């Protein structure tokens, strides 16, 4: 198990980014959360197998077709291990 925290900047709010991230993370078997930030970005905490995390990170750099991703700030973290699924956090 590995984990990362990421902040996605660009035109990422109001374009279905969070729900698309949930669907994609579930496909990769990841747990964690996604939420909007007050600054207009999207924040992600993801945990799972290294290869799945890498694929999810690659997707975050593109996002859904309605989004425009300008930057992804990613930090590798220690997994917390208490998330049961991947969901939208508020």
UniProtKB/TrEMBL annotation:
The keyword Hydrolase applies. The active site is at residues 18, 36. One of its GO terms (molecular function) is acylphosphatase activity. The keyword Protease does not apply. InterPro entries: Acylphosphatase (IPR020456), Acylphosphatase-like_dom (IPR001792), Acylphosphatase-like_dom_sf (IPR036046), Acylphosphatase_CS (IPR017968). SUPFAM superfamilies: Acylphosphatase/BLUF domain-like. Keywords: Hydrolase. This is Acylphosphatase. The gene is acyP.
